[in-house]
Design a protein that fits this description.
By secondary structure, this protein is mainly alpha-helical. The chain has one domain. 49% of the residues lie in helices and 9% in strands. The strands form three sheets. Strands 1-4 form a two-stranded antiparallel ribbon. α3 crosses α4, α4 runs parallel beside α8 and α8 crosses α9.
Amino acid sequence: MRVLRRRRLVVGILAAAVAAIIVAVTIPLVHLVSAWNAETRRASIDLADFDPGYLVADSDFYDGASMDAGEIQRFLEDKVRDCANDSCLSVLRADLAPRDAVVSQDTGETVCEAYEGGELSAAEIIDRIQRACGISAKVLLVTLQKEQSLISGRIARAPSADALGAAMGARCPDDAPCDPGRAGFAEQVAQGATDLKAYRASAFMRQPGTHYIAYSPDPACGGTEVEIRNHATAALYNYTPYQPNAAAIDARWGSGDACSSYGNRNFALYWKLWFA
């Protein structure tokens, strides 16, 4: 009986050891497979069908309930993955100041509804502002990525204070520092969403129609007349006033030439990768 018990004990120990090895191997393997799938998907994305006059549908852009806070949180966790500090958007908590409704003085239309403030997760901030301003959380997520790479990649895993301070590129001109009054993650999301909505609500800057859109800030690089066919596309060109040239489009995720700009190209790429 003692021998039998010892055999059972040895078998039990071996089974536990094998199970531990399986777990230890499987967890990293799951991450590797997921990362491989993400890279495979990324490599398959191109802009062969890129249309500079129609970057995203109005129904997608102005959908203020496109994702709830839980869905945004899961999206951030999936994209950020292995966070190296407490500033990753998957773990970040920040103070959102309460705000009264924003109403256009030019049209009388409400740009953003009032919202309550508080210490919130990044996902809760994005959700609260998308609902107040009627700008899709998906648009905000793509903008956070194309402006400061805060959703996926090396920077997303350890964002700096400067990156968070300019998270949406809101009130951050190409040739000057960002407005210090708009610095901070919550402030950036609020201002960025407000600006994106105000272009239509206030009939401000470019509206649908034919406009000259440059390829880059360098006037020598030229541009083309673009028939902008909806408000969402007009808003994106108001926010980032350049179109990608052929070199930028052909390069996909890489660099084009000296006249290439990447803001609206990257918006199109990440929208296609994550939400198309």
